[in-house]
Design brief:
There is one protein chain. It contains 8 helices and 9 strands. It is α+β, with helices and mostly antiparallel strands. Strands 1, 2, 3, 4, 5, 6, 7, 8 and 9 form a 9-stranded antiparallel β-sheet that branches. The chain starts with a helix and ends in a 5-residue tail after the last helix.
């Protein structure tokens, strides 16, 4: 009987001592913490994305108070239906979205930053894949940094965006666009983004890409006097 009594006594003592330390440190607030809820929402979006593409990531962090979402070691493959009938592997060392003040309710604005972006040449249009494979190390487009600054005014529907990127050994590209009104129409999967374009500009700074691709470009594109007409096409009479 003594062993039984000793076991009973041990269980009573354990009950008095309470649950493990980890459980004691937890509270109901841990379940309803805003960052935890937002992290679960982002995870749900990533799981939804997996219905369309292969996707893995290394780490995910969210700070609702600072308006920040960060994902490390993002690896995904866009399906062939999206990219000219061929799968498109993408790798990003880090993705960070900063929305600034999360208490602003009249606008959606922020800055999306990507670092260490690698895109396989197979993601490029078919006519550019072979030349790219010849000039790009390992057949991969490497973008050291890419940023997207965006601002959508909810009352007016106006939208401004700037995309800046640096492609290693090729070029620095900056695109600006402003819309008087931007909207989304249609139902899934036929969703279409439409807008009233106010202005747009594209700036390219050569970092070696011109020397690499000029020999294979059509003569009209490599001739400054004819390049504009080649891009825009013949003007109407």
């Amino acid at each position: 009987m003594r062993p039984s009594l000793l076991c009973t006594a041990a269980l009573v003592v354990a009950g008095v001592a309470g649950p493990p330390a980890v459980a004691q440190d937890r509270s109901l607030w841990d379940l309803v913490n805003s960052d935890r809820l937002m992290t679960q929402a982002v995870q749900a979006l990533l799981l939804t994305a997996r219905t369309q593409t292969d996707l893995t990531y290394g780490d995910l962090s969210v700070s609702l108070l600072n308006g920040q979402i960060a994902i490390e070691e993002l690896d995904l493959t866009l399906p062939a239906s999206m990219i000219d009938g061929r799968p498109c592997p993408l790798r990003v060392a880090s993705v960070e979205n900063n929305t600034g003040d999360p208490l602003i309710l009249t606008a959606l604005r922020g800055r999306l930053e990507l670092r260490g972006l690698e895109v396989d040449a197979t993601c490029l249009p078919a006519q550019a894949t072979v030349p790219a494979m010849a000039f790009l190390p390992g057949g991969v487009v490497r973008v050291a940094e890419m940023s997207v600054d965006y601002a959508y005014d909810l009352p007016s529907g106006g939208f401004d965006i700037r995309v800046s990127s640096q492609v290693e050994d090729l070029a620095t590209v900056t695109m600006d666009a402003a819309f008087d009104y931007l909207w989304i129409k249609g139902d899934e999967p036929e969703i279409e983004v439409s807008g009233l374009l106010k202005s747009a500009s594209l700036t390219i700074e050569n970092l070696g890409g011109w020397e690499a691709f000029a020999p294979i470009l059509p003569p009209a594109m490599s001739d400054p006097s004819r390049a504009a007409a080649f891009v825009t096409g013949p003007s109407a009479a």
